[in-house]
Amino acid sequence: MDLDRYLRIEDVGMTFETKKGDFVALERIDLTMEIGEFVTLIGHSGCGKSTLLNLVAGLLRPTDGGILLAEREIAGPGPDRGVVFQNHSLLPWLTCYENVYLAVERVFDEPNKELKKRTHDALALVGLSHAESKYPHEISGGMKQRVGIARALVMEPKVLLLDEPFGALDALTRATLQDELMRIVDKTGATVLMVTHDVDEAVLLSDRIVMMTNGPAARIGGVVKVDLPRPRDRLDLAGNRRYIELRTTVMDFLYRKQLRQAA
Amino acid sequence: MSAVPAAVPAAIPIRASGPHPAAAVLAARADAAVARAAKPAPTGYRRARAPEWVLGALAALAGLALFVGLWALVSKQGGGRIPDPVTVWDAAVKIFSDPFYSKGPNDQGIGWNVLSSLKRVGIGFGLAAAVGIPLGFMIGRFRFLSDMAAPVIALFKPVSPLAWLPIGLLLFKAANPAAIYVIFICSLWPMIINTALGVRQIPQDYLNVARVLNLSEWKVFTRILFPAVLPYMITGVRLSIGVAWLVIVAAEMLTGGVGIGFWVWDEWNNLKVEHIIIAIFTIGIVGLLLEQALVLLARRFSYS
To answer: Which of A128, A172, A130 has the alpha carbon at shortest distance from A146?
Structure first.
């Protein structure tokens, strides 16, 4: 298998049919990810970055081009892609444990004992063993998002898809969860595609940052390779010259080249 | 507390500095702050005030007392046509001392009458739920079915269920199934409408989760659709039972047999007005208990 071209987004276009005629959300998107890579999609809101993520997730079908994961075309949602939604999307009538177990049940054809172990392990990985029997409304926003990550990871997906996972959290919780995510990704070697609009988050976490132009008909406006050594520490990076350069490059793209007319 | 002495000298020079409006506002604020700080701690007030539920209970008791007072007054003015509260109370004590006697089909204790009515409501409602819930699911899920059902529901919903009674008598040729059938009809609409509404309200996020996790149809139903719709279904149950309990009294007056509605009619024929008043209270209390039980059930299944 071609591990350098693990995920291939090839000439993808997405047009939605609306009441006011066709709306071109994405146009001619080409992107390749290698295995174990961490790529973020960044852009102003409405630029179609979530649409692109949903295409990879299989929740939408592209109107042009195709997407291949491990040399197989994506034809719909599947457990080989773990999705973490922005608003956590945990089922409120299930405990944290049951929410994660729901994901594992379908994927692995194993005795019950193994499935239980997988669920416990996934929750332990995100540091939530103590909250297994709690319901989503009993835990904080950050903890809910951790359960969401555990639910995605427990399926042992080929790619982890994160749709602005920390967007709804306060700054301190967000920082903690970013560190946590880095630790988990280091440990599991996961391939991650993440949508964000937070420049610091993108530079801190990514191997590559894909910058998208404003919609409609959004395209990839540029790609920045983040050549900072790992493991990364947010405090050390704060004064790092290369970090500041990279950050400035992305900021420059977002706020000078792609400043929204309406804003 | 240390802030209070500091605020007082600060306020004086500002006020003294002249007629500047902003300064006056500041001074007024400083005064207010001093006044607020000077007040005793709020706990002192709270201790003196009665807890909220005591006030609520007192108000409820006052309302009931006022009602009984008015009743007694009306009874006195009416020259005894309407029995006074004491007479009714004595009769009630007598009736409820032996609620489960049975002397033939037309003379049974009030307990049997209430139970027969509840049984009719239960069967009629159970049938309505068995039909209405699946129908509601389908109507909520498929646009075409929803459009098909809309005119029928819109047409029959405002019809008094009692208008269906002759059809029931014609179909079943007996009073008891006809009464159950009327309950079925009146419970059906709220069950269908609320279940369908619940299905339509399921957040797209949950359905996306189902797709991403690749859940089986059965799991989608048991883990997502059913729990998401359950609160709406319970609302449907509450409305249905409420209407059914209203309707059964009227239906039984028309069909006869054993039941609280028939009992009211029977006592009217016997001119035992105090018994009719007892029946009214009994119907009210049973309805209240049903409502409360379902509210508790709804609370058990609400997620927030």
So the answer is: A128
